């Protein structure tokens, strides 16, 4: 079964309480938005961090992507708040 | 010359500028961002996504070299815990044309603000810690360069 | 902080930047102009009109402070004989806003190019010496700021 | 009689062969353009430096002014090529 490594940053990481985990995909066609909804349904810190996708940004294999992007065979999916560098 | 460094340590601005000046272009522009100690802030904690930061900053640097006739570029971004007065970020550019040096410097810092995977947590004297929210203004500035 | 110096000696950029950084504004921009050694140039001789230079540069500095929320500004312009690789001019600005620091820095260097009473004579290896002609482009850039 | 101190810079100074001189005015109403024409008529380096006012700029008491400006009671008139600072 297809799987992806999730990495979390900033308050997403703090709410979920871990910085990385491996998650199985329903199928390679599963989009980031669908996976995020599925994770939020776990409740607790996941719900807190992921319930409102508008507050989140995603990067698939280190590239910014939209939530309608299918995860496919990507190795790493990062979920985080909008960046505040500089 | 293209130098990119993502590091916890402070850096020597005069060494960076001297390297850019030595390229013979005639014009060197720079921007340095420093932690402000406003509203009782005691420290800023910068988290980043190492695997992505290097890729993104490298891409931004390439983009600047493609858009302006630069002969040198230096980008340094710190992470970790920084106190007020400490430098966070440095961008230096060298070109034969002062406009190219200054504009590309503005471009790079605007992009670092809204496209580099860093997150800032502000720690206050009363013990509170808040993740700094991104500013719509910063996103708009980065988008302005796409026009 | 406002520092203006018209001098023959070289200057210490890191000291200038450190003074601007210490103001606590969060953003410091700079531009440094350096003599280019192109086309066999062996030296650049900068003549100026001392009684007028101080007045004009002071006025340009005031104008920048009025147009942008600056908390510090440093302008150094050298005169006399300079060889390739030597610094001619430095502009440094400090502000809470990176845009204000970078834009005012561009404004100041554009104005120094077309409004400060300096004249450059280029000396070549073959003994020739030519007064550098002003560029319409520089005048246009200064006028852009009047819009 | 009204008079003004002329100061010259760059190739204007070199062509005229001096950096400063005192010149009587025809009247305080004499404009910079009129004085420059009068000086160019001296010939030699003056003609070389001042015959083409389009190549020149002027400052009256350290302020940039146009050539139609009357010299009036100004103390110092500077004549020079367009500036090339920065």
From TrEMBL, chains A, D:
CDD domains: Ubl_MoaD
InterPro entries associated with the record: Beta-grasp_dom_sf, Mopterin_synth/thiamin_S_b, ThiS/MoaD-like
Superkingdom of the source species: Bacteria
Protein name: Molybdopterin synthase sulfur carrier subunit
Automatic annotation (TrEMBL), chains B, C:
Keywords for the protein's UniProt record, in alphabetical order: Molybdenum cofactor biosynthesis, Transferase
The keyword Protein biosynthesis is assigned to this record: no
Listed CDD domains: MoaE
EC number(s) per entry: 2.8.1.12
GO molecular-function term, one example from the UniProt record: molybdopterin synthase activity
Keyword Transferase listed: yes
Swiss-Prot/TrEMBL GO biological process terms: Mo-molybdopterin cofactor biosynthetic process
Enzyme class, UniProt record, top EC level: transferase
Reactions mediated catalytically: 2 [molybdopterin-synthase sulfur-carrier protein]-C-terminal-Gly-aminoethanethioate + cyclic pyranopterin phosphate + H2O = molybdopterin + 2 [molybdopterin-synthase sulfur-carrier protein]-C-terminal Gly-Gly + 2 H(+)
Pathway: Cofactor biosynthesis; molybdopterin biosynthesis
Domain of life: Bacteria
Function: Converts molybdopterin precursor Z into molybdopterin. This requires the incorporation of two sulfur atoms into precursor Z to generate a dithiolene group. The sulfur is provided by MoaD.
Assembly mode: Heterotetramer of 2 MoaD subunits and 2 MoaE subunits. Also stable as homodimer. The enzyme changes between these two forms during catalysis.
Family listed: Belongs to the MoaE family.
Protein name according to UniProt: Molybdopterin synthase catalytic subunit
Organism: Sphingobium scionense
């Amino acid at each position: 079964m297809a799987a992806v490594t999730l990495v979390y940053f900033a308050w997403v990481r703090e709410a979920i309480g871990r910085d990385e985990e491996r998650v199985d995909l329903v199928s390679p066609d599963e989009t980031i938005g669908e996976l995020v909804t599925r994770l939020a349904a776990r409740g607790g810190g996941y719900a807190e961090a992921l319930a409102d996708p508008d507050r989140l940004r995603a990067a698939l294999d280190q590239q910014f992507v939209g939530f309608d992007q299918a995860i496919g065979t990507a190795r790493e999916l990062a979920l985080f708040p909008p960046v505040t560098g500089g | 010359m293209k130098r990119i460094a993502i590091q916890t340590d402070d850096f020597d601005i005069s060494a960076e500028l001297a390297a850019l000046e030595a390229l013979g272009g005639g014009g060197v522009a720079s921007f340095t961002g420093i932690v402000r100690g406003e509203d009782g802030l005691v420290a800023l904690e910068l988290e980043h996504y190492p695997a992505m930061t290097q890729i993104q900053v490298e891409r931004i640097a390439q983009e600047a070299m493609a858009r302006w006739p630069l002969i040198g570029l230096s980008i340094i971004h710190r992470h970790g815990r920084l106190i007020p007065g400490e430098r966070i970020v440095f961008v230096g550019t060298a070109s034969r044309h002062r406009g190219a040096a200054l504009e590309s410097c503005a471009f790079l810092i605007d992009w670092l603000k809204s496209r580099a995977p860093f997150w800032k947590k502000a720690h206050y004297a009363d013990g509170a810690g808040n993740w700094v929210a991104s500013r719509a203004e910063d996103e708009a500035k980065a988008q302005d360069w796409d026009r």
